Each structure stands twice: as C-alpha cells, then as structure tokens.
Amino acid sequence: MLAYLLRWEREKNGLSLTQWGKIASAAPSSVSNVEAGRRKIDERQAKIIDRHFRTGGLFELLLWYAQNGHNPDWAQSVTAYEVIARMIRIYQGQVIPGPFQTEDYARALLLARSNNIKDLEGTLKARMERQSAVLNRTDPPLIWALLDESVLDDCIGGIEVMQAQLRHLLELIQQPHISIRIVQQSAGSHVGKDGPFRIITVDSRDIAYAGAARGGRLIEMCSEVEEFRLDFDLIGQKAASEDASRVLIERRLEATEWRCSGARAQSALPSTTRRVSRSHRLPGSKSPD
C-alpha cells in the first residue's frame, strides 16, 4: 500500500519519475523500484515527501508499519483510502472511533491491551498521525458517525480523560463537515450490534471495513459494500438528530464525575462485600436478573 500511494501521489501531481526523484533525492530507477514494491523509501525521504505534499505524516506512518513488522494489510489500506476519501461513514458501538479520539483516550485504550503491543508510544504516535492525516487535510472528508449511547457512559482513562474526550466530541460537531449522531439505548436492537464498520468513499466508489477484536476485513466487492451502506442507513433511522445528540453528549459530560466516581467506588469494594450486598435480600424476594 505504501508503494501504491506513492505512485498515486506522484500521478495526482502530474510528476515524472525524474521530477519525483528530485523531490525525494532519489534516482528515477529508484523511484520505479519503490513504486513496484521492490524497495522502500527511508525515514528521511518519508519526511521530505510528507513536508513537500503536506500529507500530515502519512508516509512516515506507512513506513513505520512496514519497518516494525506491524503489517496488517487492512490498516495500511484503510489509512491510504481515508486520506484521499471524499466521505467516511462510521458506525461504532464500543468505543469512540479512532478519528475522534483524544490522545489520552487512545492511550488508555492501548494500555488496556499493552501485553500485545511491543511499542506502545510508537503505536500511539502512529494512531494520532493517522488521525491527523485524515482530519487536518486542506480538504477534509465529510465524516458521518453513528455511535451507540453506551460509548458515552464508559469511563475510559478516568474522569479527566473522559471529560476531555466528551468536550472534544462537542468541538468536532461544530465543524460543518462532521456529523455525530447517537443511537440511544431506548432504540433497542439494531444491525450494528454485529460489530463496528466504516464505509469510505473514494472518487466514485465505496470501500467498506468491518472491524474485529484482533484485526478486521477490507471489503471492496460492490454487493457486500452495498449491504454495509444499507446497514448504515438502517442504524441511522434509529439515531437521534444532530441537535438531540449534542444534548446527550452535554448531559453525559455534566454527569461524568458522578458516573466515574461511582464506578470507581464500586470496583474498590472487596469482592466478598459485593457478593453479600447482592445476596442480602428479604426472604422470598426475587433477583432482578
């Protein structure tokens, strides 16, 4: 994907192999080998290309994936598609989606699975660079997001981190190209319960990505992508309006300290105390479960 995007950037700007080589301090034959996947650019060249074309650290990010053996093809492909996308539609029912995460929120999520991450700070840096490459473009894509209400209730990273994350969401929805709508718990079951996904519009076609706990799947077949478009529309029918969603986020922000403090106090109780409190009922009373 690194090779593909390098060629795409060169052709988009109408550059020859020689012109591209002068920018990256490489011979035309070297540029050809890079685009064919026979060799890679180095860190210095990645920085030069990102700076020259204002790609927000994209090529440094893709090179980092390649150099660290972190080679989930979907991650490179999704990143490459998103930085040239006209529109990104996101459904997420578990956490705040990556493009909207604050750095501290993202760090808290990574810390929860740090046993499986060799370089936590490097992974975090790559994640934030990927976010910047999408959001800080001179022509950012339209982003329509549908989030389950439960993602607002989780106390990821503690009170201050969650408050900052909710404030960040409120700032994002002020931008004309970003729409965030909340699917309230009262909406009941919907097709998104099968897992998160996103639909990326590039030029005149859509690509879908279905998320999973330890990876994901990129879908480019038209018939299957159409199913994800339908799913997004069905979930959207159950979502609150943009204005109502903003109010929901504001209310969660106001109640964050109370909710997180309550969760912390409950988790601090000895397990025996929690068992006693659940079992200490009047004779003949029924469990709420």
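Next protein, fold it too.
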Amino acid sequence: MSPDRIRLHPGRPRTIRNKRGIAQAFSGPSTGLELRRATVFDVFQISRVLTRSITYLCAGDHHKDTALLAAWTGNKDPQTIRRWIQSGATLWLAEVDGVVAGVGGVRHGAELSLLYVDPAYVRRGIGLALLIRLEHELAGQGCTTAHLNATTTARAFYRRYGWLDVGAPTNWLGMPHYPMRKSLHPAAEGLRPAHPGDMSR
C-alpha cells in the first residue's frame, strides 16, 4: 500500500522504493515540498493549478485559441474534480509550504492520466517528484508497463525521464497527442534523467 503523504526534505537525497523493488533517488527538489493524496477538500486548489498550467504553460499546444482553451479546461472545474475523487480517481498533490503547486493522476489500467505544475512553481523539480510518485503508484497496482498520452509541450519532459514514443500521434481537440510508454519493471532500474540533477519541471 502506498503512503498517503510523503515529505521531501530540501537538499537531502530521497529514495522512494515500492514493493516491486523499484528505487529512484533524487535530491529534495523544493523547500517545504510534500506529496499527498488529494481529497474533496482540495478541489478548488486543484482546479486553479490545472487551469493556470494549461493556460500559461501549454500555449504551444492551444496557441491561445480561446475556443480550444475553453474546451481543454472545461472539465477542470471544482465540481467535476470532486466527482473524479468521489468516483475513486487517484490524484496526488505537490504542496510547497501548504500551497498546491502541482497535480498528478493515474487510472487503473496502467495509465498516467494527468500531470500539471502551477506556472509559479516551474523548474523546481515538482513535476519530476510527482512523476516518480505516479510511476510508483502504478507499479504498486501491479503494472509493469505504464502508458500516457503526451501533449507537444510535455513530450520532451517525459522522454527525458525514460518514456518512449509508441506510434503516431492521435488527434485530441485538434491537437496532437503522443502515445508513450515506460517499463516499470525492476530490471529497468527506474527513472534515469538524461542529465544528473536535472530538475527542469
């Protein structure tokens, strides 16, 4: 069973290991960073992070097209997010000094469903910390290979940390989505950044 709350200490190497034996180590990415499971009491902060991240960090995908942006963020309102959590969705939050700075989620069936960082907290290792947590969540469910669909904006980030392209991009709301996968088998030795210490998201 995964812990519901993980405290990451600044400057101290951190290793997360699950029952499948995957171990990944990295230095504490941000002062006061804590990872925890989301609850229905977090829906307003989650909605804020998702909307801000899509609006300001994913402009390379939506190109500031107001109709496209509205369609992408249309189901990121607090009421919909509350229904996600109540229906059993697994969402993890990254908090910095008590403020939600990033949101990640997985679905049963070995899928990483979302990963967003608030624009005010980019390049502090928050996206990486969440990615590691989500990969371990899936491995803890018995998944040996994880899947996701990456936006153009996020694709390089995932490739940097061991995710591979697996086919032609699909069309989602008029934007390309890139199917990707990553082995979660212990033999793969977990996540290996292309550059040691790279905390670019």
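About the second fold: The longest strand covers residues 99-107.
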